[in-house]
């Protein structure tokens, strides 16, 4: 597990990424996309988990243009307010560019097979959807992505498999928007959706307020099966 430097596509600088390597390489790559709390222990643990499952996993610092090295938790109101502040100022289009740069970085490693997917949570769940519509990632997974209804106009650009984990009681994604996503993507040949009834936003965030171990295990098992099917 190490920190790496990734060059931005617009030439404005470089940003850090937390990289976790599997025991056996070459391996498929995974771009792990942060929540609004930065590349904190939760994200690092996810990279380590994926490395343990045989993937080369990298979580890039997407807030580097605002403030490099953000690592907040979800345990205090002050940190929540800081996190919302970063999210409000975050340029999602530049974020997707940085994610593509991370995917390119992984593909160029001799420890990577050349296949690269993404997994995103919360804000990262939205960005994983955008990875599916705007980048060449081979497979993408979105956990409780927010605001996906506003991105449905891009759905025609989804050429590679996309897995959506949707919380039925997501406090940050109103029911009307969630239902629109489910209705409009129901017949999309590249999209698989699972709704987790009775679960709130971030049900898979270990240690979080709405963490549901059973739902998280189900979602993670589905994710691993999806990745194996599409990145092997």
UniProtKB/TrEMBL annotation:
Residues 15-229 form the Dienelactone hydrolase domain. Keywords: Hydrolase. Its EC number is 3.1.-.-. The keyword Cytoplasm does not apply. InterPro entries: AB_hydrolase_fold (IPR029058), Dienelactn_hydro (IPR002925), Dienelactone_hydrolase-like (IPR051049). GO terms for molecular function: hydrolase activity. It comes from the Bacteria. Pfam families: DLH (PF01738). The keyword Hydrolase applies. This is Dienelactone hydrolase family protein. It comes from Fodinicurvata halophila. The lineage of its organism: Bacteria, Pseudomonadati, Pseudomonadota, Alphaproteobacteria, Rhodospirillales.
